[in-house]
Amino acid sequence: MSREKHLQRVLDCGIVAVVRFSDPGPLVEVVKALADGGVTVAEVTFTVPNALEVIRAAKQQLGDRILLGAGTVLDTETARAAFLAGAEFLVSPSLNLDVIKMARRYDKLIMPGAFTPTEVVAAWEAGADIVKIFPAEIVGPAFFKAMRGPLPQVKLMPTGGVDLTTASEFLKAGAVCLGVGSQMVDPKLVAARDFAKITALAKQYVEIVQKHKAG
Predict the structure, then answer these.
(1) Which residue, 47, 152, 199, 206, is the most exposed by fewest CB within 10 angstroms?
(2) Which of 32, 43, 88, 108 is catalytic?
(3) Structure pTM?
(4) 43 labelled catalytic
(5) What percent of the chain has pLDDT over 90?
C-alpha cells in the first residue's frame, strides 16, 4: 500500500495509539485490543524493550488489521531498523531532518515532533506528512486554532494531554488526528492484562472522532 493510502488511513481513523510499556510481553495483545476497539493505527515506541520484536510479531499476527508504526525514533539507524521490522510509519518527539529524508527514501509516512511555528514549518518543508505537536498539553487546543490561520495546509497531531475530556477540543481546533498514549493504553490495564478495558477505551476515542467528523 502506498504512503498516500497509509496517510488516508491515519486521517480516516483519526487516532494514533502510542503503545509504551516496560514489559514487551503483553503488547501484541494490546495492539490487538486497540484494533478490536476500532483504533487501527498504532505506534510501538522505541522506549519499549525489544520494540522491533513487538513490531514484527504484531505485524505477523494482525496483518492489515492495523497500520503499525514505530515511535520515539531519534535517528536514521533506528528508522531503517523499524522499516525492516515492518513499520509503515515513524513518529518522533523531536525534529530530525535526516529521519524525514530516510522515511521519504523508503516512501513511508513520517510524523516528526515540533513545538514552535518555526519547527512546524521546517518539518513540513522537509517532507513531514503530519507534524506532531509535543507536548501538546503545554500549548493546548488554542495553539492548533492559532496555527490554522497562517498554516492551514499543515496537518497537525497533538500528543501529550489528549484524553477523553480534551480530544474533541483538539479536533475542533484543527487537529487532523490525535496521538493518544497512556490515557488509552493505561499502564495499569496493561499490567493487569485487562485487554477488554483497553478495547472499551479505544471505542470511546473512536466515537469522539466519529462525532466530530459527523459535525
Answers:
(1) 152
(2) 43
(3) 0.97
(4) yes
(5) 99
